[in-house]
TrEMBL record:
Function noted in UniProt: Catalyzes the condensation of para-aminobenzoate (pABA) with 6-hydroxymethyl-7,8-dihydropterin diphosphate (DHPt-PP) to form 7,8-dihydropteroate (H2Pte), the immediate precursor of folate derivatives.
Lineage start: Bacteria, Pseudomonadati, Bacteroidota, Flavobacteriia, Flavobacteriales
Annotated organism of origin: Flagellimonas olearia
Signal sequence extent: none
GO MF term list: dihydropteroate synthase activity; metal ion binding
Matching Pfam families: Pterin_bind
InterPro entries, A to Z: DHP_synth-like, DHP_synth_dom, Dihydropteroate_synth-like_sf, Pterin-binding_dom
Protein name as it appears in the record: Dihydropteroate synthase
Length: 277
């Protein structure tokens, strides 16, 4: 449960928080919020000061039905911000949310520390080779189809068995290509109905058999606000509730918009486990 980020060993036996920084104009919660240097640096400063171990940056919106963005535009959004953040906060461990190997490679060359791939290499056959060459931690998520088609792909013979089979094959492929630090993300909200998302959360502990760190992305998603008949802006309390459940079921990293509140979940669950009989 230890990963190597730019020579720094990060122990994930104590769960960590990954703060979300969307560089897209159309992300479902905070799209277009961080579009100038001041707002970007202020948000990164806030997240780091409230306990974020990683900052996850995305320049391609993967929300259901999001508009496709070409590679040049993704690079144009991503690379200057990596340089900006590392100039101001040089020790920041940046995770780059991309499924494109070129974006991954150029981001790592500018100082990013982790690649977070929603497709686990399925949308770019060069991704595994790129990650292996750079020897960085790799987050592989479960996704069927593409962000544009995934909502039509939520059919499974057996959800949990199908996902476990998917990860067994992907982990084997990644390790065979000499990727050493692998993190699993079951992909809440990606090619899954609301009911399937809760089935997945209920059986999250079954993914610990891979003996790999488990990243959870639940923050303000529709599986929360649809049940509560609200919207993403009103989904913080629901997010906190599900973060707590995920931690109790073995999550190692919470990918969250609200770092302070996610860290409170980590501290409280850690206190509970420390005092368990």
């Amino acid at each position: 449960m230890t990963i190597n980020c730019k020579g720094e060993l990060i122990d994930l036996t104590v769960p960590k928080v990954m703060g979300i920084l969307n560089l897209t104009p159309d992300s479902f919660f905070d799209g277009g919020t961080y579009k100038d240097e001041s707002s970007i640096l202020n948000q990164v400063d806030y997240m780091l000061n409230h306990g974020a171990t990683f900052i996850d940056m995305g320049a391609y919106s993967s929300r259901p039905g999001a508009e496709h963005v070409n590679e040049d535009e993704e690079l144009k959004r991503m690379l200057p911000v990596i340089e900006l953040i590392l100039k101001k906060f040089p020790d920041t461990l940046i995770s780059v949310d991309t499924f494109r190997s070129k974006v991954a490679s150029e981001s790592l060359e500018r100082g990013a520390a982790i690649i977070n791939d929603i497709s686990a290499g399925n949308l770019d056959e060069e991704m595994f080779k790129t990650v292996a060459q750079h020897q960085v931690p790799y987050i592989m998520m479960h996704l069927k189809g593409t962000p544009q088609s995934m909502q039509k792909e939520a059919t499974y013979t057996d959800l949990i068995k199908d996902l476990r089979h998917y990860f067994s094959e992907k982990v084997q492929e990644a390790t065979s290509q000499k990727i050493n630090d692998i993190i699993i993300d079951p992909g809440f909200g990606f090619a899954k109905t609301t009911e399937q998302n809760y089935t997945l959360l209920n059986h999250l502990d079954l993914f610990k058999t891979f003996d790999l760190p488990l990243l959870i992305g639940l923050s303000r998603k529709s599986m929360i606000y649809k049940v509560l008949d609200s919207n993403p802006k009103e989904a913080l309390n629901g997010t906190t509730s599900l973060h707590t459940i995920a931690l109790l079921k073995g999550a190692n990293i919470l990918r969250a918009h609200d770092v302070k509140e996610a860290m409170e979940c980590v501290k409280l669950v850690s206190a509970l486990k420390a005092n368990a009989l």
